[in-house]
Amino acid sequence: MIPRTEWELIVHKTITELTAGATTVALYGASHPRAGEAILELERNLTALHRGEPDLTMVLLGEELFVQGRPFTRTSRQAPSLIRRFRRRGVEHVTFRPGVSRDDLRQFLVELASMEDTAVRSRSHIQVGKVELADHDLGGPDAGTGGQGKGKLPTVRDRVTLVQETFTALVSGHGLAVGPLETVARSTQEALDGQSDPLRLFAPWEGADRWHAVHAHNVCVLTQALARVAGVNRATNVELGVAALLHDVGKLDLPPDVTQRELESLSENELELILDHPASGLATLLVSGQVPVLALIVAYEHHLNYNGTGYPRLQRPRRPHPASRLVSLADVYVVLHTARGARGVMTREAALAWVQRRSGSMLDPWWCDVLKAIVERHA
After folding, report:
1. Where are the domains of the chain?
2. In sequence order, which ranges of 29-116 are alpha helices (DSSP H)?
3. Tell me: the pLDDT tens digits for 309-364?
4. In the CATH scheme, what is the code of domain 156-377?
5. Which of 147, 230, 267, 330 is least surrounded by Cβ atoms within 10 Å, i.e. has the fewest?
6. Distance CA 335, CA 341 (A)
7. Using an 8 Å Cβ cutoff, are 84 and 335 in contact?
């Protein structure tokens, strides 16, 4: 593929200059004339892009580089080189804000080119992000509560209603309000404090119109419950809750008849809509403000299997992020245990048995064991 629009062409040039600039700095230092040319060209390109966009965000997910929610791995020949450099330096997303200076860009390239273990730092006009959630090492207790106690939602129906209102506003074109979802995640966390059996906090089926909200709420409940057992700190648990609430945001615009049927019964066009919803969800979240990075990753990866299969289809199969594997398990279990439709509703034990048969292939065996402990404790 080649860039087809002026915007894509400028993004392509930006990727090229980031790659060339970092390579030049690594080989010859920041004072080399070619490094200066790259910095000057980067400044011009970003100035042009910022005329139409308040921020320019690059997100690295596995082998894919997204710019403002659009994939550029196959569009730009230099994208794979930039992906490798980002991965080597632990950079998972970069946001360039209006007003970025040549000195900011020079220091960014110096740190991006470095072979040392020091982190690539954020600056006033360059925000660098890295997701710290490691493989089954999700952090211990912390002092922060992420605003615990503010805006409490005491009942399941209160929480589902707020999720429904947030989704309705998004579909209506009013943008995504992340604050209400954080309130739901904090309230769910507090509800789990007083309930030893998390499945009792699941919302019941309320009809097709509220299914997205009910499903998102229940996935949030189980995700946060599993994470608590694993020892996740409270602040990270809230981020995971928000990620769980937003995991299926790419389905909000799809017809209910498509989203609630078995894949085998869908037409080819309907199946493509389902297979595209992780990428659509990521694109929606990338243009929304204040979305946790974990939510971006989970929205894109929650249908990637533990063994690297699933969708979106990847050129090189890989294991998804631990947060994605957690939400994926919660998603599957909630569908089996609370959804109406052709599959019906399984008992807790039957749904657990279905999950265990796919442990190690479709689903993360470690998280499956955590779920088993929760279900069997309250059998």
Report:
1. 6-129, 156-377
2. 33-50, 79-88, 102-113
3. 888 877 677 788 889 999 999 999 998 888 754 445 788 899 899 999 999 999 99
4. 1.10.3210.10
5. 267
6. 10
7. no
